[in-house]
Specification:
Ribosomal_uL10_bac_type; 11% strand; Ribosomal_uL10; ribosomal protein; Ribosomal_uL10-like_sf; alpha+beta; Alpha-Beta Plaits
């Protein structure tokens, strides 16, 4: 009886699964269109996505950064220091930094330091705080890439700066600020060929002195000519008198 219960009533049978292949060959590239009713349902429930703009990811990322941007007090301190460099430097050179080894960059810094020129590299956010609402705001587009800045309290160091940069092709001169005036690359190099202010003042003083001397010489020209002519006549008269006295003395001796 127990065997009957176990074998007949309590025995579980697993269903037999048989996989049957579709009668025709399935075309994956061009499948058969669905039934009309099913096609209608699929068309209704098809999701619709708005086509994004070309630069939408960049705009969204920038907006996200602006919303999450927090005022960094350390950047404010560095920006104040950078503005101080700009305000108290007579010579500022802006350089685009290409790929360069740190060893070569250190050699350039040492060579410029010998001429009392400092090399600084600041980020875009720091420079935005440093030059905002100042007379140096026009240089902001130059900081889209990595840019180095050279500061010197003497504008006469421009020749030394150009000589060092000529030996370093990785640093490309883009422009500069000399005595508070923004100069392009060509104007910056042309300024280096000009003499210093002391030499120009000496040349100007020499020109003024020569002009005054010429005026004085022109005013005294007629008087000098008159004096020379009178002097020449006086010498001729004196020679004539001496010749006459000699001839008279010779005649007296002959008579005697």
């Amino acid at each position: 009886m127990s065997n009957f219960v176990v074998n007949g009533l309590l025995q579980s049978r697993n269903p037999l699964l048989t996989f049957r292949r579709f009668r025709g060959k399935i075309n994956i590239q061009r499948p058969r269109p669905p039934h009309y009713e099913r096609a209608r349902v699929l068309e209704i429930i098809k999701p619709y996505y708005k086509k994004p703009e070309f630069n939408a990811p960049c705009i969204e990322a920038e907006q996200t950064l602006k919303s999450k941007r927090v005022d960094n007090p350390y950047e404010t301190i560095i920006a104040r220091e950078a503005r101080n460099w700009f305000e108290h430097s007579q010579l500022v050179a802006l350089l685009h930094v290409n790929s360069i080894r740190q060893e070569d960059m250190f050699k350039v810094q040492v060579a410029l330091h010998r001429h009392n020129v400092s090399v600084k590299v600041y980020g875009k956010s720091i420079m935005r705080k440093a030059v905002a609402d100042t007379r140096f705001e026009a240089i902001m587009p130059l900081f889209e890439a990595k840019t180095a800045i050279l500061f010197s309290p003497e504008a006469a160091k421009i020749k030394q700066v150009l000589s060092v940069l000529k030996k370093t092709p990785q640093l490309v001169l883009m422009g500069g600020i000399v005595e508070g005036k923004l100069l392009s690359k060509n104007e910056f190099t042309a300024y280096a060929t000009m003499p210093d202010l002391t030499t120009v003042r000496a040349q100007f003083a020499a020109v003024l002195d020569s002009a005054g001397g010429k005026i004085v010489s022109d005013l005294q020209c007629h008087q000098s000519q008159l004096v020379n002519m009178l002097d020449a006549y006086a010498k001729i008269d004196s020679r004539t008198e001496e010749t006459g006295s000699v001839s008279d003395a010779a005649g007296e001796k002959v008579d005697s």
